[in-house]
Write a structure and sequence with these properties.
Distance between the termini: 28 Å
Number of helices: 12
Strand content: 15-25%
Number of domains: 2
Number of strands: 23
Strand order of the largest sheet: 4-5-2-7-1-9-11-12-13
Shape: elongated
Oligomer: single chain
Length: 458
């Protein structure tokens, strides 16, 4: 995936980059990926050779005013203080940085600020005065170089290794594990240090250049989804066929549509028995086991009974008083129940308790690796459930009316298909014959469907 598609820089956005293992390279690559002018700067220092990150370079003394110094025409402009005796470019003083941010916001120019030093190491832990993140930035991108994982904890791999040791619990000289890096990145004195309240938090795991490091990165990403809105995995130096970003992990919400009146069945199918528990409880358990959060359950008919069946599970009940007007009303009710910053939601049906956590995770993984507006299973060439919709498809979903579901917008977007082999997952329950067919498909002595591959149908 290309950088701009993933990072989604916005006009006038102010972004700080911290951490180690590719900050300057990422800053330069982000600037190159933006179609218009971009300004780059630092609140700390840059090595003199790093002036090459931009086409033009403007040097300011601490007392100079920016008002009339920004050139009229440029693509990438680096603005720094002068070169010091240590042969490093000084950062701008806070007054200049704030003035530069106002100019960028007024002119719709992204501002990228390197706010941390790492002395070319792959990993780091911040000193007391680091990172130099300004409180008005809109986003902080924390960078970590995966080449440091598996290396001895010393000065060759880590900037400020003693602090890294204190945060991670790894002794000096011992190997740095993925768990150790997770501890540092989720610590408020480590990766999360000085990120302003309200600023978006993005983690970029760079250097995922081997199957082993890619597997480590996946483990790290999964562990940090509660701490960062997005965790990106990739390699700036060795991009893949589709670009430098291999996958983008962000929390995916779940929405269970459980509002229907089950007219053809004649009794609430949400409450049918599935191996000793209700359909709705099993669907919710599978969604939670797959890591969907938050999990919204849209109720309508039999709302109280359905809610009671979910007692003790970490779900949010959203009642749809208009459920009789068709499935589209429940779809919209589920969307209204999502957090404002929700990037994607996976929709499940309450009459498919056999849809396993493995299938759910496979659909989510397709979204992570392809980042298309829709991800869905395909069984025997047919579209299946559950279906994931990214935020960019939410407006289209909100236009659906009547007794239609998300399939109504499939022709408007590109879909990441997941081919699934177990046709039993495509079964649903509309009447007694369908209920018996579903039960027969999972005979008593067979392993639970959660323990084997599954499939499902829309």
């Amino acid at each position: 995936m290309e950088l701009q598609r993933v990072f989604e820089l916005k006009r006038g956005e102010c972004v700080a980059l911290t951490g180690a293992g590719g900050k300057t390279s990422l800053m330069a690559a982000l600037a190159d990926s933006w179609p218009g002018p971009v300004i780059l700067t630092t609140s700390t220092h840059l090595s003199a050779w790093q002036v090459s990150v931009a086409q033009k370079h403007l040097i300011l003394t601490p007392d100079e005013d920016l008002s009339n110094l920004i050139p009229e025409s440029f693509h990438t402009l680096l603005v720094t203080g002068p070169v010091g005796q240590d042969e490093r470019l000084a950062g701008l003083v806070p007054r200049q940085l704030e003035a530069l941010s106002r100019i960028c916001r007024a002119q719709g120019i992204p501002l990228l600020i390197e706010a941390d030093g790492a002395r070319q190491r792959n990993l780091k832990a911040p000193a007391d005065h680091e990172p130099a993140v300004l409180e008005w930035v809109d986003r902080v991108i924390v960078v970590a170089g995966l080449h440091g994982v598996g290396q001895p904890l010393d000065e060759s791999a880590v900037h400020r290794p003693e602090r890294f040791a204190a945060l991670s619990g790894v002794a000096m000289g011992d190997l740095i594990t993925a768990d150790a890096l997770i501890k540092v990145l989720k610590n408020k004195q480590g990766g999360l240090k000085r990120i302003p309240v309200g600023a978006k938090r993005t983690l970029f795991l760079n250097q995922a250049e081997s199957p082993e490091l890619l597997a480590e990165a996946e483990q790290i990403a999964e562990a940090l989804l509660d701490d960062y809105q997005d965790v990106l995995i990739g390699s700036l130096q060795q991009p893949g066929a589709n670009g430098p970003i291999f996958s983008v992990h962000s929390p995916v919400a779940g929405v269970i549509l459980a509002a229907g009146g089950s007219q053809r069945l004649g009794r609430p199918k949400q409450l049918l028995d599935w191996r000793g528990q209700s359909f709705i409880a099993k669907v919710a358990q599978n969604a939670l086991a797959a890591g969907l959060r938050p999990l919204i359950v849209v109720t309508g008919a039999e709302s109280e009974a359905v809610s009671d069946a979910l007692a003790g599970l970490l779900v949010t009940i959203v009642h749809n008083p208009d459920w009789q007007a068709g499935q589209s009303t429940s779809l919209r009710a589920g969307l209204r129940g999502l957090p404002e910053d929700c990037r994607a939601a996976l929709f499940l049906m309450s009459d498919q308790p056999q849809v396993s956590p493995d299938l759910i995770r496979s659909v989510v993984e397709a979204f992570y690796t392809r980042r298309l507006p829709i991800a869905a299973p395909r069984i025997a060439g047919r579209r299946a459930n559950p279906v994931l919709f990214a935020r960019e498809a939410f407006d289209a979903l909100n236009t659906i009316r009547g007794d239609q579901g998300g399939r109504a917008v499939f022709n408007q977007f590109e879909v990441a298909w997941v081919d699934w082999d177990d046709e039993r997952s495509a079964l649903d329950v509309d009447d007694e014959a369908a209920y018996e067919r579903l039960k027969r498909a999972y005979i008593k002595n067979e392993a639970e469907p959660d323990d084997r591959p599954s499939n499902s149908d829309d």
